RNA sequence: GGCCCCAUCGUCUAGCGGCCUAGGACGUCACCCUCUCAAGGUGAAGAUCGCGGGUUCGAAUCCCGCUGGGGUCACCA
């Protein structure tokens, strides 16, 4: 696993961090390696099948093969059993095989996109790319009250940042546009479908007011019984409805859910016999608000049908409302898509879903926190999906080639920032030197350590200094703190106070101020006369001084480190001195010496 | 509360009836390397596979019950 990965993020490459305000970076081919990792038997390309069920990854030769093969067959048998009939189900299979898989990510623009949303988008994207299908982005903004202006743009840049690109979407259009529901509503797309349901008796106009509803709900709560609204209007005659409508009373359109029976649907992630719900647990959901705007249940379904979506991969929380959707498909006489409900990502403390209140998970903030998109991509791919028992670091292409719903777990994952951080470190270390400099420069500029753009002199310094912190970085945002003393004559940790010394730090353990001062004076004298200011010469000189002063390297180098950097933790000493230059080194050593007087 | 889903080390996971005295990774700890910190190396601790019943010659793997956790019950998505 130590050789370079040659192919990376094919179609995502050009869409890299062009996030608003996000610096463009140069993405060299990283050398991903971690010597601890095994030679990865799973990396053998032959194990990864081509697209389609027949060619899916049938890994694990030997006894496991049969099991996996059967599982694959069974999963597809599930596809073959949707409620509409054999002809239709064959289409499903054909769909996957012929590469006509169509999936979508359909967020609502109610604010920032969080990491769980990105994961849902990612799995859809991976599914589409793996099967050579189409990935659609659709904005579901049918909630006038909650929609936030600018949220859609923000959300798109979050997706682009991790390298998720769409084939059809609001900004690029496509054969089934527009891709924003409010625009589709304005275009009158949904109305005919409501009329159709009304005409066929699958839906009805409901005249209850919101007040009446909340009252009824409150009463049901008080009586500790479930509230499941079934409008009395569901049995009204056409005349009754017309009469009421003539009064100008506002109404909603509700789905007339059958009072009896059960509805079943299959789920690719869970498998088994599917999920079945008794109609007595359902109610007559609103399809059309009194404002005339369709509700999610109706809008998404009409759009999925019109956009010929074949597979719905969405978050777990939609399971309870899926029966309504199935009923709606039946009412329209349409073939439902294949459902796959993705496990949620739980909060770090495990209590509930991810939320901004408890974890810092706004997707659009990760780049500014110093995360690499590749690291995020890799981490997120592993939240609920795995390849085998040991392969974790994978390029985009590898994940695309290996991804499959069969290996998506039904059980929840938990947000694990430590793991992400570790991966980020791995990806940072894999950056080529030039890529590292490009990656950290915006952070240094932001911290006021570099001009924007950096001067030639600053660029030269970066070239010298960036490699010193390369393997010490886990977040790019740590760069300013680590490099600050190269660029400013100030105290560490962002303070504007001049460089000052804490004698406690300056004086090594078991030494006193006088000895330390004497040693620093000797260091100053020696370095002042050094012939060549190079790493090798510096090391030779300082090691020589150890003998002269009868000090061990630890204490001597330690005090010089504090003198020169103002801190006890810093990059390797000789490289640091070499980069800092003779003049600044000597003046700081002198200043430290003075501080001990 | 009703309904639904889920259940392997602290966390992410491997496991598809015998390859399991349960494998890997993160995190933790120790040691090595070493001018500090990292990185790297070696090793350790850490899971009676939530509990209880079955089925089976054999179960982490299949079935049932329980418990626990999560989701959902809007003119929000």
- The N- to C-terminal Cα distance equals 55 Å
Strand order of the largest sheet: 3-4-7
Sequence stretches where pLDDT stays below 50 over 5 or more residues: 1-95
* Cα-based radius of gyration, to the nearest Å: 31 Å
Strand proportion, as a percent range, falls in: 5-15%
* C-alpha geometry: elongated
Strand-pairing-aware structural class: mainly alpha
How helical, in percent, are the residues? Answer: 40-55%
User: How many individual helices?
Assistant: 22
Number of strands: 11
Overall residue-averaged pLDDT value = 82
Largest sheet: 3 strands, antiparallel
Describe this structure in words.
By secondary structure, the protein is mainly alpha-helical. It has helices spanning 63-79, 86-97, 115-130, 151-162, 181-186, 191-200, 210-222, 238-246, 296-306, 322-332, 373-381, 396-402, 417-429, 433-446, 456-469, 479-487, 503-506, 513-528, 535-549, 553-565, 573-580, 582-595; strands at residues 102-105, 134-137, 203-206, 252-255, 262-265, 275-278, 286-288, 311-315, 338-342, 345-346, 413-414. 42% of the residues lie in helices and 7% in strands. It has a 3-stranded antiparallel beta sheet with strand order 3-4-7. α11 (373-381) packs across α13 (417-429) and α18 (513-528) packs antiparallel against α22 (582-595). Residues 1-95 have low confidence and may be disordered. It binds one RNA strand of 77 nucleotides through α1, α7, β6, β7 and α9.
């Amino acid at each position: 696993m130590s050789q370079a990965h040659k192919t990376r993020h094919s179609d995502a490459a050009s869409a890299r961090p062009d996030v608003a305000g996000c610096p463009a970076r140069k993405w060299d081919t990283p050398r991903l390696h971690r010597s601890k990792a095994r030679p990865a038997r799973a990396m053998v390309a032959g194990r990864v099948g081509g697209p389609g069920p027949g060619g899916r990854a049938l890994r694990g030769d030997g006894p496991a093969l049969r099991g996996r093969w059967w599982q694959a067959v069974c999963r597809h048998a599930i596809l073959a059993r949707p409620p509409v009939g054999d002809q239709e189900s064959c289409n499903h299979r054909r769909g996957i095989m012929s590469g006509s898989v169509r999936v979508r990510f359909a967020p609502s623009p109610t604010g920032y996109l969080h990491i769980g949303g990105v994961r849902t988008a990612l799995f859809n994207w991976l599914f589409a790319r793996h099967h050579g299908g189409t990935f659609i982005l659709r904005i579901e903004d049918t909630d006038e009250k909650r929609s936030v202006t600018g949220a859609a743009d923000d959300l798109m840049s979050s997706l682009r940042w991790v390298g998720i690109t769409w084939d059809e979407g609001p900004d690029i259009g496509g054969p089934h546009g527009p891709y924003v529901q409010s625009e589709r509503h304005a275009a009158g797309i949904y109305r005919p479908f409501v009329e159709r349901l009304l005409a066929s008796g699958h839906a009805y106009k409901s005249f209850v007011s919101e007040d009446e509803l909340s009252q009824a709900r409150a009463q049901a709560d008080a009586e500790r019984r479930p509230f499941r609204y079934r409008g009395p209007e569901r049995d009204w005659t056409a005349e009754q409805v017309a009469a009421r409508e003539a009064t100008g009373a506002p109404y909603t359109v509700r789905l007339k859910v059958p009072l009896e029976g059960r509805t079943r649907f299959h789920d690719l992630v869970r498998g088994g016999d599917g999920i079945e719900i008794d109609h007595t647990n359902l109610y007559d959901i609103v399809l059309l608000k009194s404002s005339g705007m369709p509700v999610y249940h109706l809008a998404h379904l009409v759009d999925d049908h019109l956009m010929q979506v074949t597979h719905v991969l969405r978050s777990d929380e939609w399971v309870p409302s899926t029966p309504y959707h199935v009923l709606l498909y039946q009412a329209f006489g349409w073939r439902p898509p294949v459902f796959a409900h993705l496990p949620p990502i739980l909060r770090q403390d495990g209590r509930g879903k991810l939320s901004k209140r408890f974890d810092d998970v706004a997707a659009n903030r990760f780049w500014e926190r110093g995360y690499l998109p590749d690291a995020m991509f890799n981490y997120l791919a592993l939240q609920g999906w795995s390849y085998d028992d040991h392969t974790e670091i994978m390029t985009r292409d590898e994940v695309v080639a290996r991804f499959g719903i069969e290996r998506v777990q039904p059980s929840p994952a938990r947000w694990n920032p430590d793991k992400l951080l570790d991966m980020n470190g791995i990806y940072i270390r894999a950056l080529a030197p030039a890529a590292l400099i490009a990656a950290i420069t915006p952070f240094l500029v932001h911290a006021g350590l570099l001009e924007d753009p950096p001067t030639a002199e600053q660029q030269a310094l970066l070239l010298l200094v960036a490699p010193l912190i390369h393997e010490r970085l886990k977040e790019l945002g740590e760069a300013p703190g680590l490099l600050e003393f190269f660029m400013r004559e100030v105290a560490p940790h962002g303070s504007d106070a001049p460089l000052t010394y804490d004698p406690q730090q300056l004086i090594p353990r078991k030494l006193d101020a006088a000895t330390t001062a004497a040693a620093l004076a000797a260091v100053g004298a020696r370095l002042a006369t050094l012939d060549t200011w190079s790493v090798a010469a510096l090391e030779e000189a300082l090691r020589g001084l150890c003998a002269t002063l009868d000090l061990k390297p630890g204490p001597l180098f330690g005090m010089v480190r504090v003198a020169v950097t103002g801190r006890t933790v810093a990059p390797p000493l000789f490289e640091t001195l070499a980069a800092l230059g003779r003049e600044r080194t000597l003046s700081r050593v002198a200043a430290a010496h003075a501080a001990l007087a």
